[in-house]
Automatic annotation (TrEMBL):
Ranges of residues in domain PPM-type phosphatase: 30-298
Name of the protein in its database record: protein-serine/threonine phosphatase
Reaction catalysis annotation: O-phospho-L-seryl-[protein] + H2O = L-seryl-[protein] + phosphate; O-phospho-L-threonyl-[protein] + H2O = L-threonyl-[protein] + phosphate
Organism: Coffea arabica
Keywords: Hydrolase, Magnesium, Manganese, Metal-binding, Protein phosphatase
Gene label: LOC113732925
Entry annotated with the keyword Plastid: no
Pfam family membership, one: PP2C
Length: 429
């Protein structure tokens, strides 16, 4: 290579006029900015459904650029205490499991694991109070255009995008509809069967002891601990065209399919949309249970409402990109771009095994030399000998499974969930 060529290469690329740069910046800024509009409707039959609505949370106090939104519904059963406890404590417990100082992409990457820790911690704390009620949780975190949904139970969150594609962001933890979960419950010491009335099997599949139709929840102290609080977590990134979330309790979904719910309210603002979905569900089924619906529109800053979407049928394309996947399948690191350019799938994991959900690293507090429990975040002395496995602490190669590090209380919980110690329901059926 000649000297002339080298010096040519060292030259800076042609300068872009400042005006063009600023214009580009402004356009990008405009594209990136989004807002959320929401509306909720609840009709009570038993009064056991609760909302959590926090559109303006901030990772750093008084820093608008670190803002995120949280929306959740809690469908309680057997009383209201678990739903209320989860509503009041879950967000705090999730946030405390995200390492300090993370921002942007790192924060979002840490979120799925923190959701698992937060759900389990909330369940442990609730059970310590001795109440026996339980609750489903559908917990949605919106940061920029990224939507992360963690769920236990049979409430549902769907995403309706501008392409008219409707996708499911929650797992299904009804025993009747999830063979994988039936297997897990049975393997962990529970029994699955229908209610026996006068020699006849009636109703949906339930687990015993307890008689719950769900395989996962927070609470349910009177059911064996094979009913786990470990959430299904799915994380997607919307295009800057935005999308609509419909979060609703099971009584909506017993009456309407995801497509029907989405189509019933397209083009309407969020508050009217929530009313209409509930009305539509009642029309076909009547008010049989608490009926709760939360509609959240994630929209570009300069569009007050989502533009009406041409009504398209649930397409083959949709099945391809949001096709039914094994509930416990791994999907780490493989991000797929939907062909309609609407949604990028970032993360999905539904396993009930904490070993697969919490990672293997042992967070060490470099100041104190203490280890943090991966679930409750309490500092522990390494000398307490509380590694999840016996054997030398620092020889991961010699163990079948080396992490995460759990404190004694959380390790007991993990073993009980996996049927490795007798789970003791407070009240036997
Ligand atoms: Zn712990």
């Amino acid at each position: 290579m000649s000297k002339a060529e080298i010096s040519k290469m060292k030259q800076k690329p042609p300068l872009v006029p400042l005006g063009a740069l600023i214009g580009r910046e402004l356009r990008n800024e405009k594209v990136e900015k989004r807002t959320v509009k929401y509306g909720q409707t609840a009709l009570a039959k038993k009064g056991e459904d609760y909302f959590l609505i926090k559109p303006d949370c901030q990772r750093v106090v008084d820093n608008q650029s670190t803002s995120f939104s949280v929306f959740a519904i809690f469908d309680g059963h057997n009383g209201i205490s678990a739903a209320i406890f989860a509503k009041e404590n879950l967000l705090k417990n999730v946030l405390s499991a995200i390492p300090e100082g993370l921002g942007g992409e790192e924060w979002l990457q840490a979120l799925p694991r923190a959701l698992v820790a937060g759900f389990v911690k909330t369940d442990i704390e609730f059970r310590q109070g001795g109440e026996k009620s339980g609750t489903t949780v559908t917990f949605v975190v919106i940061d920029g255009w990224t939507v992360t949904v963690a769920s236990v139970g049979d409430s549902r969150c769907i995403l309706d995008t501008q392409g008219g594609v409707v996708s499911l962001l929650t797992g299904n933890h009804r025993l009747e509809e999830n063979a994988e979960e039936r297997e897990r419950v049975t393997a962990s010491g529970g029994e699955v069967g229908r209610l026996n009335v006068g020699g006849n099997e009636v109703g949906p599949l339930r687990c015993w002891p307890g008689g719950l139709c769900l395989s996962r929840s927070i609470g349910d102290t009177d059911v064996g601990e094979f009913i786990v609080p470990v959430p299904h977590v799915k994380q997607v990134k919307l295009s800057s065209a935005g999308g609509r979330l419909i979060i609703a309790s099971d009584s909506i979904w017993d009456a309407l399919s995801s497509d029907q719910a989405a189509q019933s309210c397209r083009g309407l603002p969020a508050d009217l949309a929530a009313k209409l979905v509930v009305k539509e569900a009642l029309r076909s089924r009547g008010l049989k249970d608490d009926t709760t619906c939360l509609v959240v529109d994630i929209i570009p800053y300069d569009h007050p409402v989502l533009p009406p979407t041409p009504k398209k049928k649930h397409t083959l394309l949709n099945s391809l990109f949001f096709g039914k996947r094994s509930e416990n399948s791994m999907n780490k690191g493989s991000s797929k771009l939907s062909a309609v350019g609407a949604v990028e799938e970032l993360f999905e994991e539904g396993s009930a095994m904490l070993a697969e959900r919490l990672g293997k690293d042992f967070p060490l507090n470099s100041n104190s030399g203490l280890f943090k429990c991966a679930i409750c975040q309490v500092d522990q002395q390494p000398s307490d000998g509380l590694s999840v496995n016996s054997g030398p602490f620092f020889s991961p190669g010699s163990k079948p499974w080396e992490g995460p590090f759990l404190c004694a209380t959380c390790r007991k919980k993990k073993d009980a969930m996996e049927g490795k110690r007798p789970s003791k329901p407070a009240i036997t059926a």
